[in-house]
């Protein structure tokens, strides 16, 4: 996220298009307040049922946590956390999951299994959006990360458009673009620095970082901020004349299935993959956070949880889907 130069003020956000600001306001104007005990009476076993589905999936596939976390991010960053990422296309490749940034998403089956199990006990009560938010939390815990009480009460949306995925932050964004993109969702640069730590999990295709290892600009072929030996290793995996569809690398070569603070250490070693990763060093404030999180896993965990709760509280749905793949 998947996902995404120095600006220390809100000037970039203030210059955003009015339509984007209206979309942002729309996110926050819908839905009732979330609550950590939302299903206490209506479906008290919901969280344990969802946790079992995530646990079972992770036993079989260690990459499932990365998939679930990225899916939750991509759901929240488009239309709010409304489960729209889970909807199947009505036509040919028209839903969010078919948009270019989302075609590599996986682990949808985990949400389907969790929904089926929850529906058998509490039919029509727990939203797909809440199941995804809870599954993302459980995935992080299973990968060695922190736990927290997930605010619940989201509703599921009825709209899912592949074209909307162009609103997702790009891995080529600089710090000003990151600030503008996340500020439209009520998030600060501090949140950006913490949330990008999710890059400690998962895999990236060459297309997301080729801009740094080939034809970087008119002066440099390779991004000079990349460690040369690291760039050379990336070129071997992603040769310019070979556009193999599945070629790529793990985002954290040391612990790609463990949720830890290695990502920030990689940034300081100039071994982080994306332009967005390196962009965190271009602002004094985010740079200080990179050093802080690289030194202290606990500091990163606390900041990540705070920022993820903030992101996942954006809700704009309207219903409780019976099937996460289709509207009622």
- Please report which band the strand proportion falls in: under 5%, 5-15%, 15-25%, 25-35%, 35-45% or over 45%: under 5%
How many strands in all? 2
Summarize model confidence as the mean pLDDT: 89
Overall form: globular
The CATH architecture term of the largest domain is Orthogonal Bundle
* Largest sheet: spatial strand order: 1-2
Rg for CA atoms = 19 Å
**Ranges with pLDDT <50 over ≥5 residues?**
1-30
Q: CATH homologous superfamily of the largest domain?
A: Peroxidase, domain 2
Give me the CATH fold name of the largest domain.
Peroxidase, domain 2
SSE topology string: HHHHHHHHEHHEHHHH
**Briefly, what CATH class of the largest domain?**
Mainly Alpha
Would you tell me the structural class of the helices and strands?
A: mainly alpha
How many domains? The number is 2
* SS field, number of helical segments: 14
Overview of this protein structure:
This protein is an all-alpha fold. The protein folds into two domains: 46-167, Peroxidase, domain 1 (Orthogonal Bundle), CATH 1.10.520; 175-310, Peroxidase, domain 2. It contains 14 helices and two strands. It has helices spanning 11-14, 18-29, 46-60, 64-79, 108-121, 128-142, 175-183, 189-195, 210-213, 228-237, 262-268, 275-279, 284-295, 297-312; strands spanning 203-205, 248-250. It has a two-stranded antiparallel ribbon. α3 (46-60) runs antiparallel to α5, α11 (262-268) packs across α13 and α13 (284-295) packs across α14. The longest helix has 16 residues, at 64-79. The chain is globular. Residues 1-30 have low confidence and may be disordered.
